[in-house]
Amino acid sequence: MQSTSVLLSTPIRAAVATIDITDLVSLEFRGKHRGPPAQPGRLTGRVILLTDGTHEILLIALDLLELYEPWMTRFQKALRHYLKVPVENMLVWCNHIHAASNSDGIAEVPLADRLAAAITTARADYTPVEWSYAGKDLGPGWTIRRRFTIADLETFCVMFNDACRVESHRLEVSAQVRSYLQDKGVDPAAWSGSGTPAFCESPADTRLDLLSLRRHNDRRPLATILRFPAHPAIASHTKIGNALYPDFIGTLRSQFEQDFGGTAIYLQGPCADIRPLHEHYGIEAAAAYGRRLACEAARLVKGLHYKTVEGAGLAKEFAQVSLRPEYMWSLERLRKQQQQAADNFAAEQNAAQRLALGRRMEVLRWVEFHQVTRPTIIPDAALRKGTWPMEVSAVRLGDALLANLPGEIFASTGAALREALHPNSAPAIVTELAGPYANYVSPANEYGTGGYEDTCCFLHETAAQRLQQAAIQAAISLSHVSS
């Protein structure tokens, strides 16, 4: 697949569109729920439109969990049919909301039809715009790194607060660690930290970014991109059942819009290994977290100083990423390897070796899941060839740059990319879940260490680096676009 770019020249105008998609979404695909879901909150699709009168760029954010490549291809083709906008000029994110469906739970054509109608209406409101950026590292108390390293034994995912407790700005997890080891058939005494308090680390990224557009004529806010890295699972479907709810993101957006004006569009920062720090679960807990974030966003608004948007563009690169070697195996070979690993696991007494065999069993279980149980995630062509050309993109608005990676990206990967992209202190914002879903992208230093995020990763250990390099290349192709 070839690199593409579209550059807009001055004067640049913008518009926004928002639709309700709640009635289009079902949770039945998850196998745990049947029938129409309750709707305690509204899921939306939000779009920023940019044009110079000749070309048009669509930046689309959907309140969904994951967007798989075959679905994405059909969705973008439908939008192209309705709007006459090239697919190369569209960028689609999802917010990874855990009380929403992935693309298996929503039909792409009705969604595209509804979104196209709103975009067509919004085109009548194109207006010259100014841009501004503000950002802040929020620091401790907001999120935790949910991957906990059990000394030299294992790394595992502290998905929820089971047997944990919040202490100030930290999460104490020793009881969950002991329970995890016992479930693996390992004596907790093998853990050198057993019997002492244990806390999750602070994440590599706590940054809240605002990229704001306002109307040039009357200075009224038009749209603001809010970016923050945190798994929206406070109101997960595992906690609220067969119900749709946009987690803390919904309250953050609505509160920000009420306080500041315009349309708020949330984009996920790299948060494969990050989740919110909170005591309770459910709708009220998610709303409370969203209100806290909205207060921080309101403080950042005071630092906005607008300039005319004198350049904009969207560039896409395609990183050739290899699959994990096990994904090239035949089903027969997979079954044999699963049985061998299970036999060795049952016989192993050494704690470290037993956990290593457990990791191996988990990797093979995920291979079966992606090949047999849920074959809609990895394209057939990728399974045949062992490589996947993954879409990576960059968007520039004036001096501000958004670098956008597919799948769930570790915070360290995102932080390193951001550092590489703004040597001259120009705003650089890194987002994830842009384009077709690439699952978790385990970086080389985390590869094979265990935990949900690593064992379910179907990409080669070089994938994170390749995606970073492609993002830098996409940014370079837009480097001459500035205000």
Annotate the secondary structure layout.
Elements: E1 4-8, E2 13-20, E3 44-51, E4 56-62, H1 69-83, E5 90-94, H2 108-122, E6 127-137, E7 143-145, E8 147-150, E9 154-157, E10 165-167, E11 170-172, H3 174-183, E12 207-215, E13 221-228, H4 237-240, H5 247-260, E14 263-268, E15 274-276, H6 283-301, E16 307-308, E17 312-322, H7 331-347, H8 351-373, H9 380-385, E18 387-397, E19 400-404, E20 408-409, H10 411-421, E21 428-431, E22 440-441, H11 452-455, H12 463-477
Parallel strand pairs: 4-5, 13-14, 19-21, 20-22
Antiparallel strand pairs: 1-17, 2-3, 2-6, 3-4, 6-12, 6-16, 7-15, 8-9, 10-11, 12-13, 17-18, 18-19
Overview of the molecule:
Strands 2, 3, 4, 5, 6, 12, 13, 14 and 16 form a nine-stranded mixed sheet that branches. A five-stranded mixed sheet has the order 1-17-18-19-21. Helix content is 32%, strand content 26%. The protein contains twelve helices and 22 strands. The two termini are 31 Å apart. A hairpin with a 4-residue loop joins β3 and β4.
